[in-house]
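Table S7 (text form). Paired inputs.
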Amino acid sequence: MADDDWLVVHHVPGHTPGHISLHNPTHRYALIGDAVFGRAQFDTGGVKAAAPPYTDVVAYRATIQILAELDLDLLLTCHYPVMRGEEVADFLDASRAWSDLAEGVTRRLLREAGGTLTLAEAIDRANPLLGPFAAPRELQWALLAHLDHTVTKGEAERITRDGMVAWAWRRDPTSAPNG
């Protein structure tokens, strides 16, 4: 094996905590598997089948940043055609933009809930705003990540409503224990 054929392993926990990518810096390509998902998972007919499935907003965004900094010319994923040149940057930009949109929608839904919001309610309300997706229940992963992210940021709190987990927007996020 020539020196320029080595693959560098990067920890990219965007999709799952232990996810990795394999990167060849000399030839500027990476095999990323399911690390990031653009704006949707598409079925064979090109229909938006499901939302990007990630469970940690901070890790997902960090993964996008890691991949963007690799200056890739070729990107190999599990669910998308091979991407080359500007397609790589466009895909990473779409991944970041969808996560930003999901954060905004989640915050809006919490503010407009007028009380509490369950994950099922969030999915029903968010699907037309983020998709729509043929499999809306697959929104559960990203929405759960974003709902919990609002808790971490002190914007909302996780509570129990009628035996179910729900989230409530804090009227004054500065009064939250996490800042």
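Next pair, protein 2 of 2.
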Amino acid sequence: MGAPGAARSATHASRCVLAALAAIVVLAVPAGAATGASSTPTGSIGLRLLDAAVGGDPRARLYIVDHLAPGTIIHRRVEVANTSDATAHVVLYPAAATIDEGSFVGAEGRTRNELSIWTAVSPRSADLPAGGRATATVTIKVPADAPPGEQYGVVWAEIRSDPKGSEGVAQVNRVGIRIYLSVGPGGAPATNFVIEALTAARSTDGRPTVLATVHNTGGRALDMNGALRLHDGPSGLTAGPFPAALGTTLAVGDEGSVTILLDKELPAGPWDAQITLKSGLLKRTARARITFPEVGLAAPVIAEPEGRGWPYFIVVTGLLLFLALAAYVANRAQRRRKLKDGEIPQDQPLPATGAETAKANDRAA
């Protein structure tokens, strides 16, 4: 990578790392849940997707992930469960969602966007006994004039407690299923991302930490997961794999940091760090030589992608062979044309004249 590209990547990495440094503490998010739920009253509810879109994206088993042409209608079944020991009145409804600084955020209340307007849930509510379950259908009707692009939403299942105290404050508990909907003709946009840099850091409790700067260069949002391995450390040590913290979501064109927390006993290094990140079926691997600082974070190190050397070599070699073959064929065609026209090819010596032959014989004598 040239100096300008390296400087650009280092700048991007620094910006993403500074944004992520305050969030080194890992937050666990339940699978299939959208963020934004408030405090939990006695008992709880659960919500899961029963139908998955046809295709290979593993995220479609947890979320509503699809690519639809304008004018299309789809239906997805969800199951809501009451795991408390009392009857619960559950309300189901769609709402807007955004991707903000690496997090998928379901809007508060019934905030709307285009996708939530296109979405309906039936039935809209259910009274579930203790341990009871119910099935609802989520219907998404994409208008014929819908603009192309990817939109985000959430289907909420909500219960509210009775107002308490003189101020009449009620507690709200919500769980949700994310919606990633791409709209446009033809097939779904390609998914792609680049691991730009790795930054070694030290958390406030002294744990070595790696922040991977990722740039979403494709046409769909990414939900990142993966693992880090360390090789060629002090005295030839190896360590890992260490799982990446879940919950990092990148919108189209976004950059962000994926956090990996390591064992506190690991020596500072240097280490050959190899990280593999995935979103759906797409996987990327990159390496960088890193050393963990005593406190804070070190400078970002540009990551070198793996798995691209051979394809690049094959393409370049094939192009060179094609050019050589084309030149050979052109040369042969030129020779045939000259022979046909009675011309002598330029790469053969011209026959000597009589005078030149006599001079040559004199010199030889």
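The longest strand covers residues 88-100.
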